[in-house]
Design a protein that fits this description.
This protein is mainly alpha-helical and 261 residues long. Helix content is 77%, strand content 0%. It has one domain. The chain is built from eleven helices and no strands. The longest helix has 33 residues, at 3-35. One of its GO terms (molecular function) is alkenylglycerophosphocholine hydrolase activity.
């Protein structure tokens, strides 16, 4: 093969790759537009929460309902894709289960001052395990794991001197679980190899926002008051859950032997 032919072949391959990337980008944008209307109830429920802004000093079943309503809407968002979709994608089922446990966690945290904080912590810990399983262990990406590990370690170091009793190890375990979830979400986004999809990017952003929300909760509860903490916590939390739920759309089940074949 001559140099000219080699250049022509390289140019052709480059054009084909660029065309495929443009097509993937167009398909991703189209998919996002298709999913948007299904999220309208979630956005309305979130607005209701922020407009009512019920006082946390007077916990009630009504305030629990209003707080959980946006997450209920995300259940409906996933269920709207059909039982067949959930049946064919184990990762989507795990994300739905994670949303269910998150709702229980939200309800428990309404009564956290009455002694239900640990119950809420347990529900969200289960959610993180389910989300981690949904995101999978491939690719491994140890660099992403190291980065998240450093952030998690620094977060615990910040909190450690303020913790006492069982919270010393409960918070450590919780940080490890949410950090692991963040690692598995971050590992799925391989920008340098162009091996990413909008659903994986959505999972990654959702996991990072979840970490921000929970760190704000911890600092505000155990360390010192964070200005506008409730607004920061709930805005990042609802955005995180929406993005994680959105990541389940068209997520491929890598463990399905039929698809591997």
């Amino acid at each position: 093969m001559t140099c000219v032919q080699h250049l022509q072949l390289s140019s052709s391959l480059s054009s084909i790759l660029n065309t495929l990337r443009l097509k993937e980008s167009h398909d991703a944008l189209f998919q996002v537009k298709c999913e948007g209307p299904k999220l309208v109830p979630f956005f309305k429920a979130t607005c209701v929460y922020f407009v009512l802004w019920l006082p946390t000093s007077s916990p009630s079943w009504f305030s629990a309902l209003i707080k959980c309503l946006p997450i209920f809407c995300l259940w409906v968002f996933l269920l709207a894709h059909g039982i067949g979709f959930l049946g064919a994608h184990s990762s989507a089922r795990k994300i739905l289960a994670g949303l269910i446990f998150s709702s229980l966690g939200d309800a428990f945290l309404i009564w956290q001052e009455q002694g239900y904080f640990v119950h809420g912590l347990l529900m969200f810990a289960i959610s993180h395990v389910l989300y981690s399983s949904a995101f999978g262990m491939k690719p491994l990406d140890l660099r992403a794991g190291l980065s998240i590990g450093v952030v998690s370690g620094l977060s615990y170091a910040l909190l450690y001197s303020y913790l006492s009793g069982p919270f010393t190890y409960l918070v450590a375990v919780y940080i490890a679980l949410i950090g692991f979830m963040g690692w598995r979400a971050l590992a799925g986004v391989q920008l340098y190899d162009d091996l990413w999809t909008w659903t994986k990017m959505s999972a990654c952003l959702g996991a990072m926002l979840f970490m921000v929300s929970d760190l704000t909760i911890a600092v505000n509860k155990f360390c010192f008051p964070v200005p506008h903490s409730r607004a920061i916590i709930m805005a990042t939390y609802y955005a995180a859950q929406m993005l994680i739920a959105l990541s389940a759309v068209e997520r491929q089940d890598e463990d399905d032997p039929k698809k591997i074949a």
